[in-house]
């Protein structure tokens, strides 16, 4: 565990979707290299938190702050949030027809590099790293030349999200049910990747109800969301209790 100033500080975040308030008030500190697991029943606000932090236009932040490395994400457009170092892995990654996977990821990576004053990677240098990343994730290299997620299976889409993660190397990554659609080897690849990136300082917020993966990830904290608020905070014992009794539990 890295002991330092939090890389991400969320303070009293309130989020509306249309006329409905989904997040009532979320306060959360995320340390560099840490791992936080979010659990909660459907509609409790887990995915909403990720979408709001990433800047999705349908998720309106009506109060609060989210400070990443001294910058308030809420005041930035979505692309600037990504350049600042926030990464969101979608629960259901969308297709982008007509845009090749390798071009999509290289364009995103070079935008991040430009924001840091670094030189862009040419196609050759990028492909070298991307192919190695794909191999590590058990992802066919041929998928790099296909349109983004078009015709991909659920597991292939999730591996593709992980490939983007390895190339962009963000400060904070929120993985929304990354285990959904993955086979046993895919889940193992997630755990190994997260462990490796945590050691390099990337912080993770993982939305999951898959106890075996949560135990393998060894989170620093487990949070249970309920009706747009953090109802319980704990460790693995909380995740195990939820897995055993479900969300129809008495609140302390």
TrEMBL record:
PROSITE patterns: ABC_TRANSPORTER_1, ABC_TRANSPORTER_2
Keywords: ATP-binding, Cell membrane, Membrane, Nucleotide-binding
Listed SMART domains: AAA
Molecular-function GO terms, alphabetical: ATP binding; ATP hydrolysis activity
UniProt keyword annotation of Nucleotide-binding present: yes
Sequence ranges assigned to domain ABC transporter in this UniProt record: 8-252
Entry superkingdom: Bacteria
Family per record: Belongs to the ABC transporter superfamily. Ycf16 family.
The protein's name in its UniProt record: Fe-S cluster assembly ATPase SufC
Source organism (scientific name): Comamonas denitrificans
